[in-house]
Structures are given as C-alpha cells and as structure tokens.
Amino acid sequence: MVEIGRAIISNDIFEKHFLCDILKCKGACCIEGDSGAPLTDEEAILIEQEYDTFADLLPQKHKNEVEKQGYSLIDEDGDLVTPLVNNRQCVYSYYNDKGILKCAIEKANFDGKTKFRKPISCHLFPIRITEYKRFDAVNYQELNICKPGRECGASEKLPLYKFLKVPLIKKYGEEWYREVEIAAEHLLTSR
Questions:
Q1: CB 3.0–4.6 Å: which of 28, 69, 152, 169 could bond 21 by disulfide?
Q2: What domain range is 6 assigned to?
Q3: Are the beta carbons of 21 and 148 closer than 8 angstroms?
Q4: pLDDT higher than threshold 80 for residue 175
C-alpha cells in the first residue's frame, strides 16, 4: 500500500490494468450491486437541484420511483445512495438506442445542461473509496461484470490509476495525483 495525503492506496490501483469496454459490458455497473451509487451530501443536493436538467432522459417508471423514494435515500448500511428501480437499476440510468445503460446526469453534463458530471463514486468506479476519520482507503473492486474492462486495459497496458486520472484529480487534486504518478514510477522501478 501507498500513503499519499489522507489516502491509503492499494497496490492494485498501480498494478491492475483497466479500460472500460462499455460495448461489451453494456453499462452493467449501473445495474449490479447491493445498493444504489454512494453519494456525498453535496451530490444529493445537486441531484435534487439539477433533476429537471436530466429527467426528460429517464423512463417514466424511473421518474415514478424518484417521486416515491426521493432523489436520494439511506440504504440498509446507513449510506446515502441513489434510489433503485426494481431494487436493482440506478434510477438515474436509461438505455440508449444501442441497448447500453447510460447515466442521465452525465448525458445532461455532456450536453451542456449542467456542470455536475455524475456522483464521484460512479466516476471513480471500479475504484471504491471508504472514508474513515483519519484516512481514506482507496481500493480496486474487481467484479465479474468488468472482465471486458480488465481485458481491454491489459491489451492497452493502461494502469487503473491512469484510466481514472480525471476523477482521482477531481477527488484529491492535481498535486495529489502527481504524487500518485511518482509513487507508480517508484513501484515500477523497485520490482
């Protein structure tokens, strides 16, 4: 493990390769899991404030669930998360015309309707961050649904930390990410 700032980073972040292959996985990360996407308090507020910028992309069933469950909720573990449809699919996801599950929030962002891209937990996936009082545990969550992403990343020789450069900078800042790059170089040369 590597400690940078308040983050304790698993070696998997440096050693594992990853490049999302959405044409093969079809956006399975928006439908698999035990709960909705983890949210910060600020993200829950933003989703409620920005809902009208992306609601038109959602199927009516999803809009009904937002009316019923709210814009965010506390799950069985006590975590703030996005609501689900049928206890499975993120309520803010929709299928595009190619049968790929997409994020309505991100689509609105790409279309210039909102500055909010999507929850950081989604943007960082398959990295999962657990925040404790004194440190953040930064780990790779290796799931079967992401096998195409591992294969694609291996073929491109793209380490996970490089694939997720933008959201890691968003979470911890550019200086922190430069230290990640230095640590990665050190780990590579010390093998």
A1: 152
A2: 1-18+126-191
A3: yes
A4: yes
Contacts by residues 79-85 (CB-CB < 8 Å, ≥ 24 positions apart): 79/35, 79/38, 80/38, 80/39, 80/40, 80/41, 80/44, 81/35, 81/36, 81/37, 81/38, 81/39, 82/36, 82/37, 82/39, 82/47, 82/119, 83/36, 84/35, 84/36, 85/61
Q: Could you tell me which residues come within 8 angstroms of residue 43 by beta carbon, excluding any fewer than 6 positions away? A: 72, 116, 119, 120
| 121: in domain | no
Confidence of residue 191 (pLDDT cuts 50, 70, 90): low
**Each residue of 134-171: pLDDT tens digit?**
999 999 999 899 999 999 999 999 999 999 999 999 99
What percent of the chain has a predicted confidence (pLDDT) above 70?
A: 99
Q: Mean pLDDT across the stretch 77-98?
A: 94
Instruction: Supply the pTM of this predicted model.
Output: 0.89
Say yes or no: 82 and 102 in one domain. yes
Strands 84-85 and 80-81: unpaired
- Mean pLDDT across the chain: 94
| Span between the terminal Cα atoms of the chain, in Å | 14
